[in-house]
Amino acid sequence: MLGSTGGQTEFNLEAARISALPADAFYISNFLSEDEERWLLQKVTSAPLPRWTQLSRRRLQTWPSALTKTNTLLASPLPGWLVSPIIEPRFKSLGIFEDAPHGAPNHVLVNEYQPGQGSCRTRTAPPITHSWQPQTSADDGMEESEALAETSRTNQAPQFRILQERRSLLITRGKLYTDFLHGIAETTTDAHLDAQSICNWDLLREINPYQDGCYQRETRTSLTYRDVLKVAKMGNTMKFLGGR
Length: 244
Description:
5 helices; globular
């Protein structure tokens, strides 16, 4: 799945396909190097405290800013540390976001989960077209599972489970992105981890940590890249807020 040419890491998207899922999803276990992970986490943790929004089940940073009440993004570039090397060159070499309205992600969510924290299963918000998730962690042993369920099965157990290792990239698109609910169970231990229950088991970087079928969670930090459809320039937004 991974190769190296002239010092540059190359990724084969088709080789990363999660074949056990009913729609397009891809998993690259070594998307970030350990040095890149440390550098990104240093950038995240050194952000000013007001950058963090404390939610009931996690805390969150939004870059370059939070969306307005009308799900509009105020036009502003992403900081360089969120662009290189993730968007350029890696997203571009994979061809993801090529068909997005803006040709590249313009919004990033940074979520931090402590053990026992998670997120309710939700459907993707209408103004978002794509979501690509490089997963990184502040602890060398941190792994995370994500559950997916069809909209009609909201109150039932998830149909599909994906185990996301630190430094990995999970890509969902098409029906899996728009018609399925995505969430993270609120638990301190991920259980029933095996080839029968985990859709991407054959794509994991290492399975030894899960030989006992469970894993103790530690702190997880994830970056979610999105393309927001509605974008407004600052001047136009100020006129709107002023009623002119």
